[in-house]
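for ur thesis appendix - PX domain containing serine/threonine kinase like. copy paste whatever u need, i formatted it the way the template wanted (i think)
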Amino acid sequence: IVRRYSDFDLLNNSLQIAGLSLPLPPKKLIGNMDREFIAERQKGLQNYLNVITTNHILSNCELVKKFLDPNNYSANYTEIALQQVSMFFRSEPKWEVVEPLKDIGWRIRKKYFLMKIKNQPKERLVLSWADLGPDKYLSDKDFQCLIKLLPSCLHPYIYRVTFATANESSALLIRMFNEKGTLKDLIYKAKPKDPFLKKYCNPKKIQGLELQQIKTYGRQILEVLKFLHDKGFPYGHLHASNVMLDGDTCRLLDLENSLLGLPSFYRSYFSQFRKINTLESVDVHCFGHLLYEMTYGRPPDSVPVDSFPPAPSMAVVAVLESTLSCEACKNGMPTISRLLQMPLFSDVLLTTSEKPQFKIPTKLKEALRIAKECIEKRLIEEQKQIHQHRRLTRAQSHHGSEEERKKKILARKKSKRSALENSEEHSAKYSNSNNSGSGASSPLTSPSSPTPPSTSAALGLSKRCKERDICITSTSSTSTTTSSSPASCEHRGTCPALVSGCEWHEPRGLAQLHPEFPKRNFEESQNL
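the 3d part is after this line
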Protein backbone atom coordinates (compact mmCIF):
# COMPACT_ATOMS: atom_id res chain seq x y z
CA ILE A 1 0.00 0.00 0.00
CA VAL A 2 2.81 2.41 0.87
CA ARG A 3 4.51 1.69 -2.47
CA ARG A 4 1.33 2.31 -4.41
CA TYR A 5 0.82 5.62 -2.57
CA SER A 6 4.22 6.81 -3.79
CA ASP A 7 3.33 5.65 -7.33
CA PHE A 8 0.10 7.67 -7.17
CA ASP A 9 2.08 10.74 -6.05
CA LEU A 10 4.48 10.35 -8.99
CA LEU A 11 1.58 9.99 -11.42
CA ASN A 12 -0.20 13.03 -10.00
CA ASN A 13 2.96 15.16 -10.10
CA SER A 14 3.54 14.19 -13.74
CA LEU A 15 -0.04 15.13 -14.66
CA GLN A 16 0.30 18.47 -12.86
CA ILE A 17 3.45 19.21 -14.88
CA ALA A 18 1.38 18.51 -18.00
CA GLY A 19 -1.14 21.14 -16.87
CA LEU A 20 -3.71 18.99 -15.02
CA SER A 21 -4.70 19.30 -11.40
CA LEU A 22 -6.56 16.31 -9.93
CA PRO A 23 -6.84 16.21 -6.12
CA LEU A 24 -5.57 13.09 -4.41
CA PRO A 25 -7.28 11.91 -1.18
CA PRO A 26 -5.60 12.96 2.12
CA LYS A 27 -2.53 11.17 3.49
CA LYS A 28 -1.34 10.29 7.00
CA LEU A 29 1.98 9.38 8.44
CA ILE A 30 2.72 5.68 8.08
CA GLY A 31 2.64 5.11 11.85
CA ASN A 32 -0.92 6.46 12.02
CA MET A 33 -2.37 4.28 9.30
CA ASP A 34 -5.34 2.47 10.85
CA ARG A 35 -7.71 0.15 9.05
CA GLU A 36 -10.49 2.72 8.55
CA PHE A 37 -8.13 5.28 7.09
CA ILE A 38 -6.63 2.73 4.67
CA ALA A 39 -10.12 1.79 3.46
CA GLU A 40 -11.04 5.46 3.04
CA ARG A 41 -7.78 6.17 1.23
CA GLN A 42 -8.25 3.23 -1.14
CA LYS A 43 -11.75 4.41 -1.99
CA GLY A 44 -10.43 7.89 -2.71
CA LEU A 45 -7.64 6.54 -4.92
CA GLN A 46 -10.13 4.39 -6.83
CA ASN A 47 -12.26 7.48 -7.53
CA TYR A 48 -9.09 9.27 -8.65
CA LEU A 49 -8.33 6.45 -11.11
CA ASN A 50 -11.94 6.43 -12.35
CA VAL A 51 -11.68 10.13 -13.28
CA ILE A 52 -8.45 9.49 -15.18
CA THR A 53 -9.55 6.37 -17.06
CA THR A 54 -12.90 7.85 -18.16
CA ASN A 55 -11.05 10.73 -19.84
CA HIS A 56 -10.28 9.64 -23.40
CA ILE A 57 -7.00 11.58 -23.71
CA LEU A 58 -5.70 10.68 -20.24
CA SER A 59 -6.52 6.98 -20.60
CA ASN A 60 -4.22 6.83 -23.67
CA CYS A 61 -1.43 8.76 -21.93
CA GLU A 62 1.93 7.01 -21.51
CA LEU A 63 2.11 8.01 -17.82
CA VAL A 64 -1.21 6.33 -17.08
CA LYS A 65 -0.38 3.23 -19.16
CA LYS A 66 2.92 2.76 -17.33
CA PHE A 67 1.21 3.21 -13.96
CA LEU A 68 -1.55 0.66 -14.65
CA ASP A 69 0.59 -1.86 -16.57
CA PRO A 70 4.33 -1.27 -15.89
CA ASN A 71 5.40 -4.67 -17.28
CA ASN A 72 4.07 -4.08 -20.80
CA TYR A 73 5.04 -0.40 -20.97
CA SER A 74 8.55 -0.49 -19.58
CA ALA A 75 10.45 0.14 -22.84
CA ASN A 76 11.94 3.55 -23.65
CA TYR A 77 10.44 4.20 -27.09
CA THR A 78 12.29 7.50 -27.54
CA GLU A 79 15.60 5.61 -27.34
CA ILE A 80 14.35 2.94 -29.76
CA ALA A 81 13.23 5.65 -32.20
CA LEU A 82 16.61 7.42 -31.97
CA GLN A 83 18.41 4.16 -32.78
CA GLN A 84 16.23 3.60 -35.85
CA VAL A 85 16.64 7.21 -37.01
CA SER A 86 20.42 7.15 -36.59
CA MET A 87 20.58 3.94 -38.69
CA PHE A 88 18.57 5.73 -41.37
CA PHE A 89 20.97 8.74 -41.35
CA ARG A 90 23.90 6.47 -42.17
CA SER A 91 22.46 5.91 -45.63
CA GLU A 92 20.90 9.39 -45.98
CA PRO A 93 23.52 11.90 -44.77
CA LYS A 94 21.75 15.02 -46.10
CA TRP A 95 19.27 15.08 -43.15
CA GLU A 96 20.04 16.38 -39.68
CA VAL A 97 18.08 16.27 -36.40
CA VAL A 98 17.41 19.69 -34.85
CA GLU A 99 15.55 18.54 -31.72
CA PRO A 100 13.12 15.84 -30.56
CA LEU A 101 9.48 17.01 -30.40
CA LYS A 102 8.63 15.38 -27.11
CA ASP A 103 5.09 14.02 -26.59
CA ILE A 104 3.45 16.18 -29.29
CA GLY A 105 1.35 13.16 -30.31
CA TRP A 106 -0.91 10.81 -28.34
CA ARG A 107 0.66 7.52 -29.44
CA ILE A 108 3.18 5.88 -27.10
CA ARG A 109 5.07 4.09 -29.88
CA LYS A 110 5.22 6.99 -32.34
CA LYS A 111 7.94 9.63 -31.97
CA TYR A 112 8.59 12.95 -33.71
CA PHE A 113 11.79 14.91 -34.47
CA LEU A 114 12.33 18.37 -35.91
CA MET A 115 14.61 18.03 -38.96
CA LYS A 116 16.51 20.15 -41.47
CA ILE A 117 18.33 19.59 -44.74
CA LYS A 118 22.03 20.40 -44.49
CA ASN A 119 22.13 22.51 -47.64
CA GLN A 120 18.85 24.28 -46.69
CA PRO A 121 19.34 25.05 -42.96
CA LYS A 122 16.37 27.42 -42.60
CA GLU A 123 13.79 24.95 -43.82
CA ARG A 124 12.17 22.84 -41.08
CA LEU A 125 10.68 19.40 -41.49
CA VAL A 126 9.10 16.84 -39.16
CA LEU A 127 10.23 13.21 -39.02
CA SER A 128 7.76 10.68 -37.61
CA TRP A 129 8.80 7.15 -36.61
CA ALA A 130 6.40 4.35 -35.59
CA ASP A 131 6.64 0.61 -35.10
CA LEU A 132 4.09 -1.98 -36.21
CA GLY A 133 0.64 -2.33 -34.68
CA PRO A 134 -1.75 -5.28 -34.13
CA ASP A 135 -3.55 -4.76 -37.47
CA LYS A 136 -0.51 -5.13 -39.73
CA TYR A 137 -1.55 -7.86 -42.21
CA LEU A 138 0.55 -6.88 -45.23
CA SER A 139 3.61 -8.93 -46.08
CA ASP A 140 6.94 -7.20 -45.43
CA LYS A 141 7.56 -6.74 -49.13
CA ASP A 142 4.11 -5.24 -49.87
CA PHE A 143 4.31 -3.09 -46.74
CA GLN A 144 7.64 -1.54 -47.73
CA CYS A 145 6.49 -0.97 -51.32
CA LEU A 146 3.32 0.82 -50.21
CA ILE A 147 5.19 3.01 -47.69
CA LYS A 148 7.63 4.09 -50.43
CA LEU A 149 4.63 4.79 -52.69
CA LEU A 150 3.20 7.47 -50.35
CA PRO A 151 5.37 10.40 -51.60
CA SER A 152 3.80 9.89 -55.06
CA CYS A 153 0.29 10.54 -53.67
CA LEU A 154 -0.88 13.97 -54.89
CA HIS A 155 -4.24 15.33 -53.73
CA PRO A 156 -5.35 18.87 -52.80
CA TYR A 157 -6.59 17.59 -49.39
CA ILE A 158 -3.73 15.22 -48.50
CA TYR A 159 -0.60 16.61 -46.80
CA ARG A 160 2.37 15.80 -48.98
CA VAL A 161 4.97 13.27 -47.82
CA THR A 162 8.51 14.42 -48.64
CA PHE A 163 10.29 11.13 -47.92
CA ALA A 164 9.23 7.65 -46.73
CA THR A 165 11.03 4.41 -45.98
CA ALA A 166 10.38 1.24 -43.96
CA ASN A 167 11.96 -1.97 -42.73
CA GLU A 168 10.40 -5.17 -41.38
CA SER A 169 9.57 -3.63 -37.97
CA SER A 170 8.87 0.11 -38.42
CA ALA A 171 8.39 3.04 -40.82
CA LEU A 172 9.89 6.51 -41.05
CA LEU A 173 8.32 9.48 -42.88
CA ILE A 174 9.35 13.12 -43.34
CA ARG A 175 6.92 16.01 -44.00
CA MET A 176 7.22 19.79 -44.03
CA PHE A 177 6.75 21.44 -40.62
CA ASN A 178 3.67 23.68 -40.47
CA GLU A 179 3.83 26.57 -38.00
CA LYS A 180 0.04 26.91 -37.88
CA GLY A 181 -0.40 23.34 -36.76
CA THR A 182 -3.42 21.08 -37.12
CA LEU A 183 -7.18 21.64 -37.06
CA LYS A 184 -7.15 20.64 -33.38
CA ASP A 185 -4.57 23.38 -32.68
CA LEU A 186 -6.93 25.90 -34.30
CA ILE A 187 -9.91 24.73 -32.21
CA TYR A 188 -7.98 24.72 -28.91
CA LYS A 189 -5.80 27.79 -29.67
CA ALA A 190 -2.68 25.67 -29.01
CA LYS A 191 0.95 25.77 -30.11
CA PRO A 192 1.98 22.82 -32.31
CA LYS A 193 5.23 22.05 -30.45
CA ASP A 194 3.62 21.76 -26.99
CA PRO A 195 2.97 18.31 -25.46
CA PHE A 196 -0.35 16.68 -26.37
CA LEU A 197 -1.72 16.70 -22.80
CA LYS A 198 -0.90 20.36 -22.27
CA LYS A 199 -2.46 21.39 -25.57
CA TYR A 200 -5.76 19.54 -25.48
CA CYS A 201 -6.57 18.01 -22.09
CA ASN A 202 -7.30 21.20 -20.15
CA PRO A 203 -8.19 23.99 -22.62
CA LYS A 204 -8.42 27.55 -21.28
CA LYS A 205 -11.18 28.55 -23.67
CA ILE A 206 -13.85 26.40 -25.33
CA GLN A 207 -15.13 27.83 -28.59
CA GLY A 208 -16.30 26.18 -31.80
CA LEU A 209 -15.61 27.27 -35.37
CA GLU A 210 -17.83 29.47 -37.53
CA LEU A 211 -20.50 27.84 -39.67
CA GLN A 212 -18.75 28.55 -42.97
CA GLN A 213 -15.51 26.99 -41.66
CA ILE A 214 -17.43 23.91 -40.50
CA LYS A 215 -19.07 23.52 -43.93
CA THR A 216 -15.85 24.04 -45.93
CA TYR A 217 -13.56 21.90 -43.77
CA GLY A 218 -16.18 19.16 -43.51
CA ARG A 219 -16.68 19.02 -47.27
CA GLN A 220 -12.92 18.89 -47.95
CA ILE A 221 -12.40 16.05 -45.45
CA LEU A 222 -15.30 14.03 -46.88
CA GLU A 223 -13.94 14.47 -50.42
CA VAL A 224 -10.52 13.06 -49.52
CA LEU A 225 -12.08 10.16 -47.59
CA LYS A 226 -14.19 9.28 -50.64
CA PHE A 227 -11.07 9.46 -52.85
CA LEU A 228 -9.15 7.01 -50.62
CA HIS A 229 -12.03 4.52 -50.38
CA ASP A 230 -12.56 4.66 -54.16
CA LYS A 231 -8.86 3.79 -54.55
CA GLY A 232 -9.24 0.85 -52.14
CA PHE A 233 -6.84 2.45 -49.66
CA PRO A 234 -7.97 1.87 -46.03
CA TYR A 235 -7.73 4.83 -43.64
CA GLY A 236 -9.68 4.62 -40.33
CA HIS A 237 -7.59 7.26 -38.47
CA LEU A 238 -9.58 10.47 -38.83
CA HIS A 239 -9.43 12.95 -35.94
CA ALA A 240 -8.69 16.67 -35.59
CA SER A 241 -4.95 16.16 -34.96
CA ASN A 242 -4.63 14.26 -38.26
CA VAL A 243 -5.92 17.22 -40.29
CA MET A 244 -3.29 19.81 -41.16
CA LEU A 245 -4.38 23.39 -41.86
CA ASP A 246 -2.78 25.10 -44.84
CA GLY A 247 -4.53 28.47 -45.11
CA ASP A 248 -8.23 27.68 -45.61
CA THR A 249 -7.51 24.16 -46.79
CA CYS A 250 -7.61 20.97 -44.75
CA ARG A 251 -5.06 18.30 -45.64
CA LEU A 252 -5.19 14.76 -44.29
CA LEU A 253 -2.20 13.30 -42.39
CA ASP A 254 -0.85 9.86 -41.44
CA LEU A 255 -1.98 7.67 -44.32
CA GLU A 256 0.73 5.25 -43.21
CA ASN A 257 -1.10 4.36 -39.96
CA SER A 258 -3.39 1.80 -41.61
CA LEU A 259 -0.40 0.18 -43.37
CA LEU A 260 1.44 -0.05 -40.04
CA GLY A 261 -1.67 -1.61 -38.43
CA LEU A 262 -1.96 1.02 -35.67
CA PRO A 263 -5.17 1.33 -33.61
CA SER A 264 -7.50 4.27 -34.26
CA PHE A 265 -7.78 7.20 -31.84
CA TYR A 266 -11.53 6.51 -31.43
CA ARG A 267 -11.33 2.69 -31.34
CA SER A 268 -12.58 2.51 -27.75
CA TYR A 269 -15.79 4.21 -28.95
CA PHE A 270 -16.72 2.41 -32.18
CA SER A 271 -15.63 -1.03 -30.89
CA GLN A 272 -18.72 -0.93 -28.62
CA PHE A 273 -21.15 -0.79 -31.57
CA ARG A 274 -21.46 -3.91 -33.69
CA LYS A 275 -22.99 -2.08 -36.66
CA ILE A 276 -19.78 -0.03 -37.12
CA ASN A 277 -17.85 -2.92 -38.60
CA THR A 278 -16.32 -1.62 -41.86
CA LEU A 279 -13.52 0.90 -42.38
CA GLU A 280 -15.90 3.24 -44.23
CA SER A 281 -18.37 3.20 -41.31
CA VAL A 282 -15.40 3.75 -38.95
CA ASP A 283 -14.36 6.85 -40.95
CA VAL A 284 -17.95 8.16 -40.94
CA HIS A 285 -18.24 7.69 -37.16
CA CYS A 286 -14.87 9.40 -36.62
CA PHE A 287 -16.06 12.24 -38.87
CA GLY A 288 -19.00 12.67 -36.46
CA HIS A 289 -16.53 13.13 -33.58
CA LEU A 290 -14.55 15.66 -35.64
CA LEU A 291 -17.68 17.59 -36.63
CA TYR A 292 -18.81 17.72 -32.98
CA GLU A 293 -15.40 19.11 -31.97
CA MET A 294 -15.48 21.73 -34.73
CA THR A 295 -19.02 22.77 -33.74
CA TYR A 296 -18.73 22.94 -29.93
CA GLY A 297 -14.97 23.34 -29.38
CA ARG A 298 -14.68 20.14 -27.33
CA PRO A 299 -15.22 16.38 -27.77
CA PRO A 300 -18.54 14.77 -26.72
CA ASP A 301 -18.76 13.73 -23.06
CA SER A 302 -19.97 10.27 -24.04
CA VAL A 303 -21.06 8.35 -27.12
CA PRO A 304 -23.79 7.78 -28.17
CA VAL A 305 -25.02 11.35 -27.64
CA ASP A 306 -28.60 11.57 -26.32
CA SER A 307 -29.17 15.27 -27.07
CA PHE A 308 -27.05 17.87 -28.84
CA PRO A 309 -26.50 21.44 -27.56
CA PRO A 310 -27.66 24.35 -29.75
CA ALA A 311 -25.59 24.51 -32.96
CA PRO A 312 -25.04 27.28 -35.55
CA SER A 313 -27.41 25.43 -37.90
CA MET A 314 -29.91 22.59 -37.74
CA ALA A 315 -28.10 21.08 -40.74
CA VAL A 316 -25.10 20.50 -38.44
CA VAL A 317 -27.30 18.70 -35.89
CA ALA A 318 -28.74 16.51 -38.66
CA VAL A 319 -25.26 15.26 -39.62
CA LEU A 320 -24.32 14.75 -35.95
CA GLU A 321 -27.50 12.74 -35.34
CA SER A 322 -26.72 10.51 -38.33
CA THR A 323 -23.26 9.66 -36.93
CA LEU A 324 -23.31 9.95 -33.11
CA SER A 325 -26.91 9.42 -31.93
CA CYS A 326 -28.18 6.24 -30.22
CA GLU A 327 -30.19 5.31 -33.33
CA ALA A 328 -27.19 5.75 -35.65
CA CYS A 329 -24.88 3.68 -33.44
CA LYS A 330 -27.53 0.97 -33.14
CA ASN A 331 -28.63 0.80 -36.80
CA GLY A 332 -25.40 1.74 -38.62
CA MET A 333 -23.62 4.68 -40.24
CA PRO A 334 -24.52 6.43 -43.51
CA THR A 335 -22.06 6.22 -46.41
CA ILE A 336 -19.59 8.99 -47.23
CA SER A 337 -21.53 9.70 -50.45
CA ARG A 338 -24.73 10.11 -48.41
CA LEU A 339 -23.03 12.65 -46.10
CA LEU A 340 -21.84 14.65 -49.13
CA GLN A 341 -25.46 14.90 -50.30
CA MET A 342 -26.73 16.30 -46.98
CA PRO A 343 -27.71 20.03 -46.92
CA LEU A 344 -24.72 21.02 -44.76
CA PHE A 345 -22.18 20.08 -47.46
CA SER A 346 -24.10 19.82 -50.76
CA ASP A 347 -23.97 23.58 -51.50
CA VAL A 348 -20.22 24.05 -50.70
CA LEU A 349 -18.18 25.03 -53.76
CA LEU A 350 -14.59 23.78 -53.79
CA THR A 351 -12.07 25.70 -55.86
CA THR A 352 -8.88 23.76 -56.53
CA SER A 353 -6.72 23.39 -59.62
CA GLU A 354 -4.66 20.43 -58.36
CA LYS A 355 -5.60 17.12 -59.94
CA PRO A 356 -5.66 14.07 -57.62
CA GLN A 357 -3.10 11.42 -58.46
CA PHE A 358 -2.35 8.17 -56.63
CA LYS A 359 -1.40 5.14 -58.74
CA ILE A 360 -1.45 1.81 -56.91
CA PRO A 361 -0.34 -1.31 -58.84
CA THR A 362 -2.93 -4.07 -59.20
CA LYS A 363 -0.94 -6.52 -57.09
CA LEU A 364 -0.73 -4.04 -54.20
CA LYS A 365 -4.45 -3.24 -54.55
CA GLU A 366 -5.22 -6.92 -53.97
CA ALA A 367 -2.89 -6.98 -50.94
CA LEU A 368 -4.69 -3.88 -49.56
CA ARG A 369 -8.09 -5.52 -50.09
CA ILE A 370 -7.06 -8.64 -48.14
CA ALA A 371 -5.49 -6.53 -45.35
CA LYS A 372 -8.68 -4.42 -45.14
CA GLU A 373 -10.82 -7.56 -44.75
CA CYS A 374 -8.52 -8.85 -41.99
CA ILE A 375 -8.71 -5.51 -40.13
CA GLU A 376 -12.52 -5.56 -40.30
CA LYS A 377 -12.65 -9.21 -39.20
CA ARG A 378 -10.53 -8.48 -36.11
CA LEU A 379 -12.76 -5.50 -35.29
CA ILE A 380 -15.89 -7.71 -35.50
CA GLU A 381 -14.31 -10.31 -33.20
CA GLU A 382 -13.35 -7.62 -30.69
CA GLN A 383 -16.89 -6.15 -30.78
CA LYS A 384 -18.31 -9.65 -30.18
CA GLN A 385 -16.09 -10.18 -27.12
CA ILE A 386 -17.01 -6.75 -25.71
CA HIS A 387 -20.72 -7.48 -26.25
CA GLN A 388 -20.48 -10.85 -24.45
CA HIS A 389 -18.52 -9.31 -21.58
CA ARG A 390 -21.09 -6.52 -21.16
CA ARG A 391 -23.95 -9.05 -21.11
CA LEU A 392 -22.18 -11.14 -18.48
CA THR A 393 -21.38 -8.09 -16.34
CA ARG A 394 -24.97 -6.87 -16.63
CA ALA A 395 -26.33 -10.27 -15.57
CA GLN A 396 -23.93 -10.53 -12.63
CA SER A 397 -24.73 -7.05 -11.36
CA HIS A 398 -28.47 -7.72 -11.79
CA HIS A 399 -28.44 -11.00 -9.86
CA GLY A 400 -26.09 -9.64 -7.21
CA SER A 401 -28.04 -6.44 -6.54
CA GLU A 402 -29.80 -5.85 -3.22
CA GLU A 403 -33.10 -5.29 -4.99
CA GLU A 404 -32.88 -8.62 -6.79
CA ARG A 405 -32.06 -10.44 -3.54
CA LYS A 406 -35.15 -8.92 -1.90
CA LYS A 407 -37.26 -10.03 -4.87
CA LYS A 408 -35.97 -13.60 -4.54
CA ILE A 409 -36.72 -13.68 -0.79
CA LEU A 410 -40.27 -12.36 -1.38
CA ALA A 411 -40.82 -14.90 -4.17
CA ARG A 412 -39.71 -17.74 -1.86
CA LYS A 413 -42.04 -16.58 0.90
CA LYS A 414 -44.92 -16.26 -1.55
CA SER A 415 -44.23 -19.76 -2.90
CA LYS A 416 -44.24 -21.27 0.62
CA ARG A 417 -47.47 -19.45 1.49
CA SER A 418 -49.10 -20.64 -1.72
CA ALA A 419 -48.02 -24.27 -1.07
CA LEU A 420 -49.44 -24.12 2.43
CA GLU A 421 -52.76 -22.71 1.19
CA ASN A 422 -53.00 -25.42 -1.49
CA SER A 423 -52.30 -28.08 1.14
CA GLU A 424 -55.10 -26.81 3.35
CA GLU A 425 -57.46 -26.56 0.37
CA HIS A 426 -56.76 -30.19 -0.64
CA SER A 427 -57.22 -31.38 2.94
CA ALA A 428 -60.58 -29.68 3.24
CA LYS A 429 -61.63 -31.04 -0.16
CA TYR A 430 -60.87 -34.67 0.68
CA SER A 431 -62.40 -34.31 4.13
CA ASN A 432 -65.67 -33.07 2.61
CA SER A 433 -65.74 -35.85 0.01
CA ASN A 434 -65.28 -38.55 2.73
CA ASN A 435 -67.97 -36.99 4.92
CA SER A 436 -70.47 -36.82 2.06
CA GLY A 437 -69.79 -40.48 1.15
CA SER A 438 -70.21 -42.05 4.62
CA GLY A 439 -72.49 -39.58 6.39
CA ALA A 440 -71.64 -36.93 8.94
CA SER A 441 -72.25 -39.31 11.85
CA SER A 442 -70.23 -42.26 10.52
CA PRO A 443 -67.50 -43.36 12.91
CA LEU A 444 -63.79 -43.40 12.04
CA THR A 445 -62.76 -46.65 10.39
CA SER A 446 -60.45 -48.95 12.20
CA PRO A 447 -57.00 -49.88 10.85
CA SER A 448 -58.22 -53.36 9.88
CA SER A 449 -61.20 -52.23 7.73
CA PRO A 450 -60.73 -52.35 3.92
CA THR A 451 -60.45 -49.18 1.80
CA PRO A 452 -63.15 -48.73 -0.85
CA PRO A 453 -61.66 -48.82 -4.37
CA SER A 454 -63.16 -45.43 -5.32
CA THR A 455 -61.52 -43.74 -2.33
CA SER A 456 -58.18 -45.38 -3.04
CA ALA A 457 -58.27 -44.21 -6.63
CA ALA A 458 -59.13 -40.67 -5.53
CA LEU A 459 -56.05 -40.70 -3.32
CA GLY A 460 -53.89 -41.27 -6.45
CA LEU A 461 -52.23 -44.64 -5.78
CA SER A 462 -50.09 -45.62 -8.77
CA LYS A 463 -48.29 -48.73 -7.46
CA ARG A 464 -49.60 -52.20 -6.65
CA CYS A 465 -49.36 -52.92 -2.93
CA LYS A 466 -47.65 -56.26 -2.21
CA GLU A 467 -47.70 -58.28 1.01
CA ARG A 468 -47.39 -55.37 3.38
CA ASP A 469 -49.86 -53.64 5.69
CA ILE A 470 -49.98 -49.92 5.03
CA CYS A 471 -52.06 -46.97 6.14
CA ILE A 472 -52.88 -43.88 4.08
CA THR A 473 -53.54 -41.02 6.47
CA SER A 474 -55.15 -37.77 5.39
CA THR A 475 -54.14 -34.50 7.07
CA SER A 476 -57.80 -33.86 7.66
CA SER A 477 -58.85 -34.40 11.27
CA THR A 478 -62.33 -35.60 10.27
CA SER A 479 -61.68 -38.85 8.37
CA THR A 480 -59.07 -41.58 7.95
CA THR A 481 -58.99 -44.35 5.37
CA THR A 482 -56.90 -47.45 6.04
CA SER A 483 -56.01 -50.66 4.31
CA SER A 484 -54.62 -53.91 5.67
CA SER A 485 -55.40 -56.23 2.81
CA PRO A 486 -53.41 -56.45 -0.42
CA ALA A 487 -56.56 -57.36 -2.27
CA SER A 488 -58.16 -54.04 -1.41
CA CYS A 489 -55.39 -52.15 -3.29
CA GLU A 490 -55.85 -53.82 -6.68
CA HIS A 491 -56.23 -50.52 -8.64
CA ARG A 492 -53.97 -48.41 -10.84
CA GLY A 493 -54.07 -44.61 -10.59
CA THR A 494 -52.55 -42.22 -13.11
CA CYS A 495 -50.87 -39.81 -10.68
CA PRO A 496 -47.18 -40.68 -10.09
CA ALA A 497 -47.03 -38.99 -6.69
CA LEU A 498 -49.13 -38.87 -3.57
CA VAL A 499 -51.99 -36.44 -3.31
CA SER A 500 -51.05 -33.29 -1.44
CA GLY A 501 -52.09 -33.64 2.17
CA CYS A 502 -51.51 -37.42 2.53
CA GLU A 503 -48.58 -39.41 3.83
CA TRP A 504 -47.47 -43.04 4.11
CA HIS A 505 -47.49 -44.69 7.56
CA GLU A 506 -46.97 -48.06 9.08
CA PRO A 507 -50.29 -49.14 10.68
CA ARG A 508 -49.95 -47.81 14.23
CA GLY A 509 -53.54 -46.81 14.80
CA LEU A 510 -55.39 -43.53 15.01
CA ALA A 511 -52.64 -41.86 17.01
CA GLN A 512 -50.73 -41.35 13.71
CA LEU A 513 -53.05 -38.56 12.44
CA HIS A 514 -50.77 -35.57 11.66
CA PRO A 515 -52.03 -31.98 11.18
CA GLU A 516 -49.00 -30.76 9.12
CA PHE A 517 -47.80 -31.39 5.53
CA PRO A 518 -45.65 -34.58 5.54
CA LYS A 519 -41.86 -34.13 5.62
CA ARG A 520 -40.91 -37.85 5.52
CA ASN A 521 -38.92 -39.51 2.79
CA PHE A 522 -41.11 -41.40 0.34
CA GLU A 523 -38.53 -44.11 -0.44
CA GLU A 524 -40.70 -46.66 1.38
CA SER A 525 -43.49 -46.12 -1.15
CA GLN A 526 -41.35 -47.19 -4.10
CA ASN A 527 -41.29 -50.82 -2.90
CA LEU A 528 -45.04 -51.11 -2.37
